[in-house]
Recover the amino acids of this structure.
């Protein structure tokens, strides 16, 4: 009897090893070949434009001393984050458009998931830090140099990255530890949490609990910090005596408020619901908003609405124009 039991167990383990998914197929935006060609050109252009815009922002902040301020320190971190962010999700999207579908080995899929979770959590906490920075600047202007001194800014940035890495390690380990027996087709353009949970053939209650707790801590926690900061800012702006002062205070927050609104609207719709949901086409469209469009639009929003960044850009272009004329 024991021999038969051992044989059955060995056979079951061998069968499990044989049926374990070794790769995932990402459907992406699978449409007609002519449409895929157009979409490939559009997304490749958006990707290159995003890299260019954020590189310009980082170089401007690094090369102009007048931008060596807490707000631009966080903005530089955000630009660096979004260059990484778009570089994590865009390759599989482009490959899927080029070939019709994208085959990703299991290890590569989990690696992409790890970096994606790290970056989206870091963006949440970084946006909350930027909201706190604006709160201190408007509500406590006299204490701003002390409360937002370089050591504090660096501490907030490091805490944002380290906390995000910790959350990502735990979530990715839980998802990678699940069994995937097939099918192996993900209705998405990158390895995301919900599509992977839908394919798991084991119990995912613990993984869903970890995902829920991390969403409460990171997503909702950072959103509450941002909302509390802007509520206090709004109350302070209303109490300002002159319309000019109110306009100036509002202009310093408007760009960040737009970015926060776009980012959290898309992420909350997707990640604030139960984790094990069907990956619908609507989810893919919304994912494009915060993985492709937001990283591209953020530098434009900040540059168009920020006079100091505009001035630094004009100085750089003017300097480049002078060097061109002198060389000729």
């Amino acid at each position: 009897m024991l021999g038969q039991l051992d044989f059955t167990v060995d056979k079951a383990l061998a069968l499990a090893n044989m049926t374990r998914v070794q790769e995932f197929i990402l459907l992406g935006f699978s449409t007609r070949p002519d449409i895929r060609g157009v979409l490939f050109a559009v997304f490749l252009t958006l990707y290159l434009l995003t890299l260019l815009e954020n590189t310009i922002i980082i170089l401007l902040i690094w090369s102009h001393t007048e931008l060596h301020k807490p707000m631009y320190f966080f903005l530089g971190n955000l630009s660096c984050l979004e260059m990484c962010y778009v570089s994590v999700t865009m390759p599989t999207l482009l490959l899927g458009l080029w070939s019709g579908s994208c085959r990703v080995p299991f290890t590569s899929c989990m690696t992409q998931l790890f970096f994606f979770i790290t970056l989206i959590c870091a963006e949440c906490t970084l946006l909350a830090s930027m909201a706190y920075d604006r709160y201190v600047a408007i509500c406590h202007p006299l204490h701003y140099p002390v409360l937002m001194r370089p050591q504090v800014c660096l501490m907030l940035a490091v805490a944002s990255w380290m906390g995000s890495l910790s959350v990502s390690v735990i979530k990715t380990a839980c998802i990678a530890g699940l069994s995937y027996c097939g099918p192996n087709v993900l209705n998405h353009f990158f390895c995301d949490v919900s599509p992977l949970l839908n394919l798991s053939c084991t119990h995912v209650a613990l993984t869903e609990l970890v995902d829920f707790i991390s969403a409460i801590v990171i997503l909702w926690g950072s959103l509450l910090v941002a909302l509390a900061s802007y509520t206090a800012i709004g109350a302070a702006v209303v109490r300002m005596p002159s319309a000019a002062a109110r306009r100036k205070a509002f202009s310093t927050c408007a760009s960040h408020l737009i970015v926060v609104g776009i980012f959290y609207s898309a992420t909350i719709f997707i990640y604030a619901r139960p984790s094990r949901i069907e990956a619908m086409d609507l989810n893919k469209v919304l994912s494009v908003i915060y993985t492709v469009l937001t990283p591209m639009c953020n530098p434009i929003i900040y540059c168009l609405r920020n006079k100091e960044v505009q001035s630094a850009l004009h100085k750089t272009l003017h300097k480049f124009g002078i060097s061109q004329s002198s060389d000729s």
Remarks:
- Confidence is low (pLDDT under 50) at residues 1-18, 274-279, 323-328.
- The longest strand covers residues 23-26.
